[in-house]
Amino acid sequence: MRFTEIPSGYLNIMGYVDCSEVNGPGCRAVVWVQGCARECPGCFNPDSWPFEINQLIAVDTLAKNILSNPRNTGVTFSGGEPFWQAPALAALARQVNYAQQTEIIPNQLGKPTATLTLCWVFQCFMAVHFVVF
Q1: What is the C-alpha to C-alpha distance for residues 15 and 71, in angstroms, rounded to an integer?
Q2: Which of 1, 34, 106, 110 could form a disulfide with 51 if both were Cys (CB 3.0 to 4.6 A apart)?
Q3: Predicted confidence (pLDDT) per residue in 72-119, tens digit
Q4: CATH assignment of the domain containing 112
Q5: d(CA 33, CA 82)
């Protein structure tokens, strides 16, 4: 898949859960993005590796879904590799803009490499916490 196939303002996701208590503190929405080139041994979500269109969802729609649950205390971006779709996730983070926490779970190789896009994404989050396994 080429990233140009994902329309602007959309995310290509593997899945979405409205309220999870195992993917970060409290009840939180979880967005699993589709696509990862890392292929880490022991990956928990190898079905998320292929760079193919799985579920296209508008960032605006996903933000409304997340905000519609009053129990949500935050959102967790997982995958696949969230940073392959960093601009769309940054737009989602800006719309949700929780005073609570946003979790980014890095791959098994450690913290994601800092890039200009990644630094820009971090600026959009009110709090970013890395969970290292």
Answers
A1: 19
A2: 1
A3: 888 889 989 998 998 999 889 888 874 344 455 555 555 544 444 444
A4: 3.20.20.70
A5: 6
Distance CA(118)–CA(84), nearest Å, equals: 10
Whether 104 contacts 80, CB under 8 Å: no
Alpha-carbon distance values, 42 to 24, 69, 96, 116 (Å): 20, 33, 32, 29
Q: How far apart are CA 13 and CA 27, in angstroms?
A: 20
Full domain range(s) for residue 39: 3-130
Q: Which residue, among 1, 107, 90, has the nearest Cα to 54 in the 3D structure?
A: 1
Going from the C-alpha of 31 to that of each of 17, 106, 116, the distances in angstroms are 7, 14, 23
106 in helix, strand or coil? Answer: coil
CA atoms within 13 A on the CB side of 71: 10
Residues 64-79 have pLDDT tens digits of 999 899 898 888 899 8
Domain count, the chain: 1
